[in-house]
Amino acid sequence: MNNSTDRIEREIVLKAARSRVWRALSHAEEFGGWFGVALKGKTFAAGQAVQGQITYPGYEHLAWNVVIDRVEPEGLLSFRWHPYAVDAAVDYSQEPTTLVVFELIAVEEGTLLRVVESGFDNIPAARRQEAFSMNSGGWDAQMKNIEKHVAAS
């Protein structure tokens, strides 16, 4: 784990083929299922904005908004978003975004999933530490979520 205040890094070895993990990441509806966002009928394509209603308990009043950055089949998926944008009364659109990168690497045990979210140093100082802290815990939970998801199928 990196001690930087600008980036969160997580890794997990999933006992699933890279093609299976890729499907869990790149198919929007399936991604939403384990990530906690309603993405029925949505797709992920580079340059495309994607919105969905958050389904995670306590956050259902919020929309999930990302712009897909890169899609490299079975290797890398990335998007930009406003980290921990949870106050419905705040317009985060003028703030810088962070970049979330999912990287897949085939390993003997299955697939190494590396997630890096970077760019926190550019987030307004008034909310930077909370966004970093909350997303750090969020990525811990999401790594468990995808692990359960790919193991169940």
Report on this model:
With 153 residues, the chain is an alpha+beta fold. Helices cover 29% and strands 33% of the residues. It has three helices and seven strands. The chain has helices spanning 18-26, 28-35, 125-151, and strands at 7-14, 37-38, 49-54, 63-72, 76-81, 98-107, 110-118. A seven-stranded antiparallel β-sheet has the order 1-7-6-5-4-3-2, covered by helices on one side. Strand 4 and strand 5 (76-81) form a beta hairpin. The radius of gyration is 15 Å and the shape is globular. 24% of the residues are buried. Belongs to the AHA1 family. This is SRPBCC family protein. Residues 16-150 form the Activator of Hsp90 ATPase homologue 1/2-like C-terminal domain. Pfam families: AHSA1.
Total of DSSP H or I helical runs spanning 4+ residues = 3
- Based on CA atoms alone, the radius of gyration comes out at 15 Å
Q: Would you tell me the structural class of the helices and strands?
A: alpha+beta
The number of E-state strands comes to 7
What share of residues are in beta strands? Answer: 25-35%
The coarse silhouette is globular
Largest sheet: 7 strands, antiparallel
User: Which stretches are low in confidence, meaning pLDDT under 50 for 5 or more residues running?
Assistant: none
**Largest sheet, spatial ordering of strands:** 1-7-6-5-4-3-2
Order of secondary-structure elements:
EHHEEEEEEH
Separation, N- and C-terminal Cα atoms: 29 Å
Residue-averaged pLDDT, rounded? 95
Report helical residue fraction. 25-40%
